Amino acid sequence: MAPRGIPEPVLIRGTGLLGASIGLGLRAAGAEVLLHDPSPSAQAVAVDIGAGHPWEENCPQPGTVVVASPPDVTGQVVIDALQRFPDAVVLDIASVKVAIAAEVQAAVENGALSPAQSARYVGTHPMAGRERSGPVAARGQLFTAAPWVVCAAEGAEDRAVVAAEEIARTLGATVHRMDAADHDASVALISHLPQIAASLVSSRLQETPASALALAGNGLRDTTRIAASDPQLWVQILAANAEEIRRILYGVREDLDRLITTMEDPTAPGARLDIAQLMAEGNAGHARIPGKHGAPPQAFAVVTVIVDDTPGQISAVLHDVGEAGVNVEDLRMDHSAGHEVGMLEISVLPGRRQELTDALTAQGWKVV
Amino acid sequence: MAPRGIPEPVLIRGTGLLGASIGLGLRAAGAEVLLHDPSPSAQAVAVDIGAGHPWEENCPQPGTVVVASPPDVTGQVVIDALQRFPDAVVLDIASVKVAIAAEVQAAVENGALSPAQSARYVGTHPMAGRERSGPVAARGQLFTAAPWVVCAAEGAEDRAVVAAEEIARTLGATVHRMDAADHDASVALISHLPQIAASLVSSRLQETPASALALAGNGLRDTTRIAASDPQLWVQILAANAEEIRRILYGVREDLDRLITTMEDPTAPGARLDIAQLMAEGNAGHARIPGKHGAPPQAFAVVTVIVDDTPGQISAVLHDVGEAGVNVEDLRMDHSAGHEVGMLEISVLPGRRQELTDALTAQGWKVV
Q1: CA distance B310 to chain A (A)
Q2: pTM of the full structure
Q3: What is the 3-state secondary structure of A49-74?
Q4: What is the pLDDT of residues B178-211, one digit of tens each?
Q5: Is the minimum CB–CB distance between A261 and chain B shorter than 8 Å?
Q6: Residues 229 through 248 of chain B touching chain A, CB cutoff 8 Å
Q7: Which domains occur in chain A, in start order?
Q8: How does pLDDT run across A315-327, given as a tens digit for each residue?
């Protein structure tokens, strides 16, 4: 029994990580899914893992086309699908939305598409990913609890918008309606700027002596984690959102210049106030990032426990946390060089910290 | 029985988080500890939590003085201690080292200290901290498994170097010998630059609409986590290491300018190659950050499990991981807005991934 509101069969064009994951999730929900990828091997892997059946010319016309191609070619694949399948709802999942909507609009203006054809298109952006790519890494539950932005242009058909939202919900995501320009401005700040910052910081580490890197702690690791991302994908994303990113980078450069000026003469009148202001502005911006599950930002209390690096230790600590009846709000490991122990940082509601510390200490754990 | 090589009593000047934690740790190891802080209430709290006894004029002369004052006044407190206590080894724990060594050297040059007095000084930097400050947050095990840099100037007395290293080891830290200039260059890259980047990114969020922030994921959270740091402390740190930081920021500005130029015309010849190079340089730098326990960087495989937000769930998953005999190499929670579930990301050796996925799936867990 297929989910309501999603015209079938669903043709997924592009069977990388995201396309194949959408296929797996929709099939698990009972939908009929067809797959097509210009790379026969990517398509074959996606078919093998059960993401759908191979699309062939004699297949029934798709009711929905999900374009999951690389960002660079997404616009053209969307236009092609609108032309080829006269009744299909067409949506894409690329991470930048204005440029693709503009390509569709340009096709209307130059007569390649009719306005009615373009009304079957809805842009979307599921904000999920993994550290691995390709269909082998695909999982039907990749989108669970992830935001999925839906950008319907003025004049988009209702059934196209409904199909896009139903696909997102069927896959367990949360729908965020937004216009394309707001989407692109938002991701420039919350996704593209952090990526650029992580890459700029990491780039400075290329010539760093190993003795310096041996001192690295979680501050450096956290700040640079996403610097391991795929350059080819990010070239496409950054280039497609250049205008919004540029605007933000002008602001960053202004702040950076101000900081460099103070660093050139840190004893000059006002220099220290300038540095303090920059840090305080960072505090203020950071405080606006929502907390867990979109709740207001909340300072959890952290209880840090020293654990040996052997199987079962972490689970034993958390078992005792559970016995104490305290919920784990967040969790992370802190590793340091040179010791075969780790620090397990357990975030709890501030009112429960002392109670948990006492309970774990009583069980013989080393609470830092 | 006091640890060998640490002349007693140990006088700790400055009883904030770090000073009080050192006191707690040294007392636990059997050392006699005296405390002094210009703030009577900070000193009283440190005494109350058992970090040491209050220092008074009629106390025995200290054998070791640990200066744990704010960075701005550390140099002066070190000089004062070298003058007042004619036999004491004096060390400090401020996070920037050249400026303090230079203050001591200047005191020798202007006759305030004799060369013999200055030879009793050793600069150190324990690389540990917590998200909270003040003596109430102090813990004797704060330094467990943390790097502790020891910077002995040429001509420093052996017994002073030994005392510094013994204190670090007694508190469970790993000693890194380094000269002061290398230390300052290292922390500029691995600590001060990430702090600046996190603050610059966070600063851009001050005016961001809530609808954009609702899309924030771990990428933004990780990149900005340390932006919540104390501005007053960081003003002192950045100003004291201005020369090294400036040098690094010139490089960052060059990269940023290059990126802005490409963003101004992303279709220009070479623009995309430029972006790809910047990202690839980020990849290369990031790959140099050492892995867990200082081991070579290693790409762990991640098994992601969906857990409900109720007490005991995480412990139940990790219990099953332990039963499967698989060691947890790293652990983190991934939260998304709008859903009362979390993703538990369990890092394991790549060869164990499939086995763990199968074992957890068989136990009924949703493995993404």
Answers
A1: 6
A2: 0.85
A3: CCCCEECCCCCCCCCEEEECCCHHHH
A4: 999 999 999 999 999 999 999 999 999 998 999 9
A5: no
A6: 229-232, 234-235, 238-239, 242-243, 245-246, 248
A7: 10-178 (3.40.50.720), 184-286 (1.10.3660.10), 301-367 (3.30.70.260)
A8: 888 888 888 888 8
